[in-house]
């Protein structure tokens, strides 16, 4: 904490320079300058906390940006490519932070005139994506309460939703009663609650010696996946194609057969339109793709990574969702935009509890419940990361994918 030996004051200045000349895009740099008082060991803050704002102050519907570590008298922060400026924002307010102390005042970086004045129009469809809800046998457990809260919020914010898509780990330990509790929570949400669709995760296959076939059957029955007897299947909903992948062996990693990979290739080619997103769900993530899946983080988990990448790389219009790691959306690399090798990939965080790099040291998760609202337009998809517990949009997880 601040010792009082020197005041923790606001940065001297903050300057935003835009590198993308498209209305609404945040691509650019934020340069923060700070001059402290002696003694030197207390001179600089440890990090900065930045917020989207307007003339009235911080936009209260948004969290702070991802933490910006102070690198000395001048710190340059690069905003993630293809991030959207919130509608109405005309400036960024930057506060200095040292442990538990936050500067009373902020430096102000003005945005170019009109940068936040845009209208995307009415979306063609809306949907939500979450993973790792980890429903338990206790309906009063925080995981269960989180899921109930998410259903209620979607009823209010997205009454015309195509559905809520859970990217694996519906049940905490694959007990059939956990799926029944999940269905009870959906029923209790009542009229207007979104239809919920489920991909299979490693927790859904359990951790004892119960046969894979039994665990799969329990999952399909418990999640009302009556249209398939496999871990993988696809659905067309409202003219949008959703493809669900799943591990075919009891393992922490997703083991995908040649048959499943060939089926995926066939489904991605079905009624293909390169200007129209197709959504692919796989609980475990591919190594070195998005937050939580980098080698040092140790939470990747696809056995046939190269084979899967070879299929997905043929379809740049696809969007892959990556769960399992629980990594917070306010992380570097939470979205990987398509390139010559792979389609666009989103880290989906978690509904039960969240995780970050520090958790790997403590082996203890964070209290959190996060996910995405997706909006489909004629030539783009907008993804808005949501902190459901705070009831706010996650500032560093507002993305646009253009076609």
Helix content: 10-25%
What is the string of SSEs from the N terminus onward? EEEEEEEEEEHEHEHEEHEHEEEHEEE
The protein's oligomeric status is single chain
Q: Kindly estimate the percentage of residues that lie in beta strands according to DSSP.
A: 25-35%
Quickly count the helices: 6
Distance between the termini: 48 Å
Largest sheet: 6 strands, antiparallel
**Could you name the CATH homologous superfamily of the largest domain?**
Metallo-dependent phosphatases
What overall geometry do the principal axes of the alpha carbons give?
globular
CATH fold annotation of the largest domain: Purple Acid Phosphatase, chain A, domain 2
The total strand number stands at 21
Ranges where pLDDT stays below 50 over 5 or more residues in a row are 1-5
User: What is the CATH architecture descriptor of the largest domain?
Assistant: 4-Layer Sandwich
Q: How much is the radius of gyration in Å?
A: 22 Å
Task: Give the CATH class of the largest domain.
Answer: Alpha Beta
Q: Given the helix and strand composition, which structural class is it?
A: alpha+beta
Mean pLDDT: 94
Count of spatially separate domains: 2
